[in-house]
Design goal:
It is built from 14 helices and seven strands. It is mainly alpha-helical.
């Protein structure tokens, strides 16, 4: 059965993200504008063929379901089409079965993949939609970002937002991963008193509980990159004001379902206004920088920095909670905690070297 809504929201967390795509595809297929919460039955989904998905993808990319040699994909990128394919596949009754003899998953067919390949060819030739991907931040820009935030008068700019940026950097995470942290997530490490640990339960790539182990957080000798110092200062200020905080970075109650979304929006808006549009920050950009920066640039900065400083790609992927296993059974037998690798990459991210504080 396709995913449905219950009293608390979607049965599967992916459904909320993928729902707009299946509604768009079925609306295009039936020529009807469905509501955003429309649920489609198994019978409806079994009617969908690869041809209909191809026409929908062509319409999204080229603006015309029936393309010709003069058509160009100026409306969206191939990465968007790949997301469309993934989202629609999620709802298909036989999503793990390749399309054959009029049965199976229609997204797993040659004509659907050919559309995506065609759009990629046009992009290589410079005849597709320009990329909107953001570039990685550089270390000097990260420092300037923190300095500009702290120069503002409000407590949020001085303590909260720099701490969010630094937490995102140390966890090689998305801003969503950090803003979803509960106040009880960061805590002392039982085996190493000089360290902290936390879980990142909301990470996009975490699909099962065993893939969400505790991750170590170390102090750095460079104060601009020391998460312990920033977190201590932030908590000393905010826990005193909001002793019953549910989320780590917002005082909103757990019943407020828009709390995290509002925090993310506020954080992005302040970064844009205070940092990215500031002339001191803009002056640090290279002449070749065309892509601009966004909140994802902080994750790209951390992963690129760890790789350039000697971290292996697989090790960086473990710290960043990217999927590694693919279809290999051996991955089920390897402890997902990977404590040594996690600590190794975190030590690399501690600019100036990891340190241990002693109480005086």
């Amino acid at each position: 059965m396709p995913p449905v809504l219950d009293d608390d929201g979607w049965v599967y967390p992916e459904s909320r993200v993928y729902q707009p795509y299946i509604v768009s595809m079925m609306s295009h297929y039936h020529g009807v504008e469905y509501e955003s919460t429309q649920i489609f039955t198994k019978e409806h989904l079994l009617e969908v063929t690869p041809l209909e998905i191809k026409r929908w993808l062509c319409d999204r990319a080229f603006g015309d379901p029936d393309i010709n040699e003069d058509s160009r994909p100026i409306n969206c990128r191939s990465s968007t089409l790949e997301m469309c394919k993934k989202a629609v596949s999620f709802f298909m009754p036989y999503k793990n079965v390749p399309w054959c003899a009029g049965q199976g998953n229609p997204t797993r067919s040659g004509i659907v993949n050919d559309v995506i390949k065609l759009v990629k060819r046009y992009e290589v030739r410079g005849e597709g939609r320009d990329s909107e991907a953001k570039r990685p931040l550089r270390q000097i820009e990260f420092r300037k970002s923190q300095q500009l935030l702290k120069a503002e008068a409000s407590a949020n700019h001085k303590w909260k937002f720099p701490c969010i940026s630094l937490m995102q950097y140390h966890l090689i995470g998305r801003v969503d991963d950090v803003c979803e942290l509960k106040s009880s997530d960061p805590r002392g490490h039982p085996d190493h008193p000089f360290a902290l640990k936390t879980k990142v339960r909301w990470s996009k790539n975490v699909q099962e509980e065993r893939r969400c182990p505790d991750q170590i957080l170390l102090a750095a000798s460079d104060p601009e990159f020391c998460l312990h110092l920033h977190l201590a200062a932030y908590l000393e200020l905010y826990v005193g004001r909001y002793p019953d905080m549910h989320y780590l970075f917002t005082d909103a109650p757990p019943t407020d379902k828009n709390a995290v979304k509002n925090l993310i929006s506020q954080y992005r808006n302040r970064l844009k206004a205070v940092v990215w549009e500031n002339q001191e920050f803009i002056a640090l950009e290279d002449e070749d920088d065309e892509d601009g920066v966004g909140t994802h640039s902080y994750r790209k900065f951390a992963s690129t920095y760890a790789k350039n400083c000697g971290g292996a790609r697989d090790e960086v992927e473990i710290r960043g909670r990217w999927k590694l296993e693919g279809g290999r059974i051996v991955s089920r037998y390897i402890d997902p905690k990977q404590l040594y690798i996690d600590a190794k990459i975190e030590a690399i991210l501690c600019v100036g070297g990891p340190i241990a504080y002693k109480l005086r």
